[in-house]
Amino acid sequence: MAKEQRKLAKIFEDIFIQEAVAKKFNAETLRKLTGDDQIDFERFRKYCYYLSNDFIIDHDGYDLYYRIMDCYYRWKEEGRK
């Protein structure tokens, strides 16, 4: 029973983390920040591995914007789409 409760608690925790991240950083936000309507959000997230869920949740404003744009400029330099 306790094992099932821990498993359920972990599922709920993961859902809450995903929702918190999505509120701060999602495909629409990325497109607005970069002005790039063609960018693949999922590929960008994988490329920018240091933009972890924890980083996104813990940072706001300029810190988050700077990291996103820094990664975006490297993404473009490498010719990614």
Quickly describe the structure:
This protein has 81 residues and is mostly helical. It contains 5 helices and no strands.
Strand content: under 5%
Order of helices and strands: HHHHH
N-to-C CA distance: 47 Å
Number of helices, where a helix is a run of at least 4 consecutive DSSP H or I residues: 5
Calculate Rg over CA atoms. 15 Å
Low-confidence stretches: none
Strand count, sense and barrel status of the largest sheet are:
none
Could you explain how this protein is built, in words?
- This protein has about 80 residues and is mostly helical.
- The protein has one domain.
- The protein is built from five helices and no strands.
- The protein has helices at about 1-25, 25-35, 40-45, 55-60, 60-75.
- The protein is elongated and about 50 Å long.
- The N and C termini lie far apart (about 45 Å).
